[in-house]
TrEMBL record, chain A:
PANTHER family: NITRATE ABC TRANSPORTER ATP-BINDING PROTEIN, TAURINE IMPORT ATP-BINDING PROTEIN-RELATED. The keyword Plastid does not apply. It is found in: Cell membrane. It holds the Pfam family ABC_tran. It is a peripheral membrane protein. One of its GO terms (cellular component) is plasma membrane. InterPro entries: AAA+_ATPase (IPR003593), ABC_transporter-like_ATP-bd (IPR003439), ABC_transporter-like_CS (IPR017871), ABC_transporter_ATP-bind (IPR050166), NO3_transporter_ATP-bd-like (IPR005890), P-loop_NTPase (IPR027417). Belongs to the ABC transporter superfamily. This is Nitrate/nitrite transport system ATP-binding protein. The keyword Transport applies. Its main location: membrane. Keywords: ATP-binding, Cell membrane, Membrane, Nucleotide-binding, Transport. Residues 6-241 form the ABC transporter domain.
From TrEMBL, chain B:
This is Nitrate/nitrite transport system permease protein. Residues 88-272 form the ABC transmembrane type-1 domain. Gene3D superfamilies: MetI-like. One of its GO terms (biological process) is alkanesulfonate transmembrane transport. The chain crosses the membrane at residues 12-31, 96-120, 126-146, 153-174, 194-211, 218-239, 251-271. One of its GO terms (molecular function) is nitrate transmembrane transporter activity. It comes from Roseivivax lentus. GO terms for cellular component: plasma membrane. Keywords: Cell inner membrane, Cell membrane, Ion transport, Membrane, Transmembrane, Transmembrane helix, Transport.
Length: 301, 279
């Protein structure tokens, strides 16, 4: 089997637990992401999602294990891996436009000033920011607008991998919905590989090709990789009518509500703790079972 | 009356003017009473003392003096008789020289201390001991080592303005949010670019606050320093006019010290507003 575009191999993270011992956040986590894939990772707060993302971004070093992108080991941050942080992380002394040109200029240092500005404006308009608003400082923008700027900054840089850490966590439901749609639109046009953290099940189903489910920490595992068998383009009002929607949703709710707890606290018993692939499809002719038990459940040893 | 509605600022300005006028009137009125109260003794009359210039002058005299001085601020009639403009010019020159030298040392050093916990820990004891020393206490040592009164005055300004700038720069740099530094890191900015494009603007409000405190202290200290080293400058001028018992000039120059100090401060207040940002 060929290696995926992004491969996470035996990633282990430990922290001192403050009482002289060590806290193992996750151990031997192993999974891959294909090029152009949109992957969401779901898990309870504190299970280690941000820790994984910071390692992928190169902002933190794992205790052991490697991350390879395009076959090369990741070390340190890079323009090839764009990050959208939960708290937007815009530079407050720069206008919305300048926050984006800041990134574009870092990515394409040879471009002329006008080209950089044009490019930045194109991406800002893709997330619905046009006209005078782009000259406002982040403090003069609403939370939703700030997150749009942050998304525009990330996409404008054409990173090979885009990392989003609960990008809509701080937004109200309506704004969240609009920006999710914008994210889908902008992603659809770029075929960007995206790795996104969320704790919102519906958001994950709407956006992802695949959802990684994480059990609770300590010793959290990336336990399952659930394929979202709902065709694109997706639309929040229509997907709920798709026969697979509730089956998938129930499966996710079951996992987060029950199994994530049952799995927690167990030390890794394998070299590669890779997630079990789960495919739920009720559209096929052979479909008969009514409960949300996955039709195909590969076991990987 | 309801027809006249003044804004808060206008009312405050009006009140200021009233207070000024009333204050000046009381001062003016108090002067003759004072000369009456201090009846001259025989001895004083014989010695020619107690003439009007030795007493506290009324504000009208000070205003006349101000008019006379400010209409020709740059005249130069020998070492003991120079225009107020020239004297203030000397003081500002010393303040700015010492201050700029201090900024050149304090801001890069503050950056280093703010970025590196080990540099902070290593330098902190020195800073804590050196900072509380009155700048004028350095004067004898400076005069002995530098052997030049001009340079010694500049050194004293240097040493008094360095601390607020150093401490505020370190504090501002250390307080830059990791998120912003992470933005720089994920955009692969080198350390120099990170320093200038992220850390400097993020810490600028704190740094400028330190610079504003420093210029205030420097302006306080220069007057005392010039009284000690003599020769030129507004501090020397005040002292010299006191020796001449010309209290009108003393009061006038005190006012000028206040005005220049205020102008220096408002220049930095302007800078502060220019670099301020809301999170
Ligand atoms: N720098 C650190 N030092 C010690 N413990 C940490 C550190 N960073 C994260 N942790 C711990 O690791 C666990 C996972 O944290 P995090 O990745 O932020 O969770 P999530 O993003 O899934 O909510 C938490 O228990 C947290 O307390
Ligand atoms: Mg998190």
């Amino acid at each position: 089997m060929s290696k995926p575009f992004l491969s996470i191999e035996r990633l282990t993270q430990q922290f001192p637990d403050g009482q002289g011992g060590t806290l193992t956040v996750f151990e031997n986590a192993t999974f891959g992401i294909e090029k152009g894939e949109f992957v969401c990772i779901l898990g309870h707060s504190g299970c280690g999602k941000s820790t994984i993302m910071n390692i992928l971004a190169g902002l933190a070093e794992p205790t052991s294990g490697v991350v390879k992108m395009d076959g090369y080991e990741v070390s340190g941050p890079s323009l090839d891996r764009g990050v959208v942080f939960q708290n937007y992380s815009l530079l407050p002394w720069l206008s919305a436009l300048k926050n984006v040109t800041f990134g574009v200029h870092a990515r394409y240092p040879d471009w002329s000033k006008t080209k950089v500005i044009e490019h930045a404006k194109t991406y800002l308009s893709m997330v619905g920011l046009e006209g005078d608003v782009v000259h406002r400082k982040p403090s003069q923008l609403s939370g939703g607008m700030r997150q749009r700027v942050s998304i525009a900054r990330a996409f404008a840089n054409h990173p090979k991998l885009l990392l989003l850490d609960e990008p809509f966590g701080a937004l109200d439901a309506l704004t969240r919905g609009t920006i999710q749609d914008e994210l889908l639109k902008i992603w659809g046009g770029t075929e960007q590989t995206v790795f996104m953290i969320t704790h919102d099940i519906d958001e994950a189903i709407l956006l992802a090709d695949r959802i990684l489910l994480m059990s609770n920490g300590p010793h959290a595992q990336v336990a399952e990789a659930v394929e979202i068998t709902i065709p694109r383009p997706r639309n929040r009002t229509e997907i709920v009518e798709h026969p697979n929607y509730y089956a998938i949703r129930n499966h996710l709710v079951q996992f987060l509500g029950k199994r994530s707890k049952e799995l927690s606290g167990k030390a890794a018993d394998k070299e590669d703790m890779s997630p079990e692939p789960v495919r739920i499809d009720k559209t096929g002719p052979s479909e008969s079972d009514a409960e949300s038990e996955p039709r195909l459940r590969a076991v990987n040893d | 009356m309801p027809s006249v509605t003044l804004s808060l600022n206008q009312r405050a300005a009006l009140l200021s003017i009233v207070m000024l006028v009333v204050g000046l009137l009381i001062w003016e009125a108090a002067i003759p009473a004072q000369t009456l109260a201090t009846e001259l003794t025989e001895y004083e009359r014989l010695m020619g003392l107690g003439q009007e210039r030795a007493g506290v002058p009324p504000p009208s005299d000070v205003l006349a003096k101000a008019w006379e001085q400010l209409s020709d601020p740059f005249y130069d009639a020998g070492p003991n008789d120079k225009g107020i403009g020239i004297q203030i010019g000397y003081s500002i020159y010393r303040v700015l020289t010492g201050y700029i030298l201090a900024a050149l040392v304090a801001i890069p050093l503050g950056f280093l201390i703010g970025m590196s916990p080990i540099a902070y820990k290593a330098l902190n004891p020195f800073i804590q001991v050196l900072r509380p020393i009155s700048p004028l206490a350095w004067m004898p040592l400076a005069l002995f080592i530098i052997q030049d009164s001009e340079a010694s005055a500049i050194f004293v300004i240097f040493i008094c303005s360095i601390w607020p700038m150093l401490i505020n720069t370190a504090f501002g740099v250390a307080g830059v949010r990791t998120d912003w530094v992470n933005v720089a890191r994920t955009h692969e900015l080198g350390s120099l670019k990170t320093a200038f494009m992220v850390i400097l603007p993020a810490a600028a409000p704190t740094i400028i606050t330190g610079m504003r405190i420093s210029i205030g202290i420097a302006w306080l200290v220069i007057v005392a320093a010039e009284m000690l080293v003599g020769g030129t400058g507004i501090g020397y001028y005040v002292w010299n006019e006191w020796n001449n018992l010309d209290l009108t000039s003393v009061i006038f120059s005190i006012l000028m010290i206040g005005v220049v100090g205020m102008l220096l401060d408002s220049a930095f207040a302007f800078l502060q507003r220019a670099v301020a940002y809301a999170e």
